[in-house]
Amino acid sequence: MNTKKFCDSFVWGVTTASYQIEGGVKDGGRGESIWDRFSHIPGRVLHDDHGDIACDSYHRAEEDVRLLKELGVKAYRFSIAWPRIFPGGYGQVSEDGLRYYEELIDGLLEAGIEPYVTLYHWDLPQKLQDEGGWTNRKTAEYFCDYCGVLFERFGGRVRHWITLNEPWVVAFVGNYTGKMAPGLRDFSAALTASHVQLLAHGMAVRLFRSMGLDGEIGVTLNLSPKEALTDTPENLEAAVRHDGYANRWFLEPLFVGSYPEDMWEWYGRQQVVLPEICPGDMELIRQPVDFLGINYYNIDYTVSDLSVWPIGFRTGFSGGNPMTHYQMPVIPEGLKKILVRVHNDYHPPKIYITENGASYQEHPDRNGQVQDDARIDYVHTHLQKAAEAVEEGVPLAGYFVWTLMDDFEWNTGYENQFGLVYVDRKTLARTKKKSFFWYRQVIDSNGAVLEENEEHDRR
Ligand code: FCB
């Protein structure tokens, strides 16, 4: 591997999200979000965990900025909680909410860390959900108003904006499988929720451009290769559909300006109500972005199963791969595959890996150290594949580890620990794991240490 491929300006970072770390759900006049509501419905989240306190970052932002500084990251990707800015989704702006993020942003800049702000990482104001959430086109307009307030206040200081995080999860896991907030089970609603999110993205990009702000704007998708579990014609066909369902359904509107035809037809045949596309929608959605953010965790293996309406497949277990505690197979090659494929098929001007990481359950040992070699190995092997993708011409500009510290992992509660920093659930004390010190070396050496480790492994 030639890690020199990580250019000098390569952005090394970590990512978090507001609801997963902040807590302080009633502080500063914050309004209720769909995740507050959902996580308090018994049985929806493992162990009935919720984010009321989470990592208490709302009250410990300074300490967390110090951690980031010690980690040596060039960039911190975090999200802004919409209900902190507009407690009711629209209408009255909360100055307290703005001030919280202002202090965080100023603290980061003082520490020499570039803020990468995600505008929507799943915590929709509950008030908007009551009005139809992402199935209501008005939500896109409200999103744009909310973005306008942030652009106005933080434009110039924040130079990297991500409109949406993983709109596929929001649409389909939120509205079709119902495993995440708002927890609905309506496939047609999920399709509309994807369209309205894409509209919201387009409106925010257009507004950003019209304000002439310095910096860049893009969107983050969760992408992963979808492969047939076994090479039967049915499974091969289902894998193409799986790719259409999860990857192309977002990539094509954003980069081609239309929904994938095969999927549109398939859903039509399944009697699904397709989203209403109004004149101008697709042009709005296809506006050029400055970068694409990709979150990668694993490859999905597909098994044809026409009993699963309306998608006609399910995800199978391949065996043979090591598994994380989340039961995600560890397949670094998939990262390279998706990077090269997206580059070849859609040519985004620039790509960031905006999330990649692994959940393992390590706890401090007798000496108070957290020896998370499996996490180091995960990040190491994925970075090797990222470097190979760069060699193949992928314009990869940065890599962000998911995540800074053990946090609230949505419907799995606190069970999955992805952090470079361990968080004691009782005291909330932060303990740097071995991976924290290792990643710091990666950053310090701009990736060169990956090669040294490799040689060391070979010896
Ligand atoms: C992604 C989410 C992120 C985190 C990781 C593990 O889907 O964007 O918030 O929970 O999964």
Give a verbal description of the structure:
The protein is an alpha/beta fold and 459 residues long. It has 16 helices and 13 strands. It has an eight-stranded parallel β-barrel with strand order 1-2-3-4-5-7-10-11, surrounded by five helices. The protein has a three-stranded mixed beta sheet with strand order 6-8-9, covered by helices on one side. Strands 12-13 form a two-stranded antiparallel sheet. The chain starts with 10 loop residues before the first strand and ends with a helix. The structure holds beta-D-fucopyranose. Beta-D-fucopyranose binds next to loops. The site of beta-D-fucopyranose (FCB) has 12 residues, from loops.
Quaternary structure: single chain
- In DSSP terms (H or I, runs of 4 or more residues), the helix count works out at 16
In whole angstroms, how far apart are the ends?
16 Å
- Overall SS class: alpha/beta
| Strand neighbour order, sheet with most strands | 1-2-3-4-5-7-10-11
Helix content: 40-55%
Let me know the largest β-sheet. Answer: 8 strands, parallel, barrel
Q: What count of domains describes the coordinates?
A: 1
How much of the sequence lies in strands comes to 5-15%
CATH homologous superfamily (4th level) name: Glycosidases
Mean pLDDT value: 97
Ligand catalogue: beta-D-fucopyranose
Point out poorly predicted stretches.
Answer: none
Instruction: Examine the coordinates and then state which fold CATH places here, giving the name of the CATH topology.
Output: TIM Barrel
User: H/E order of the elements?
Assistant: EHHHEHHEHHEHHEEHHHEEEHEHEEEHH
The CATH architecture comes to Alpha-Beta Barrel
| Overall morphology | globular
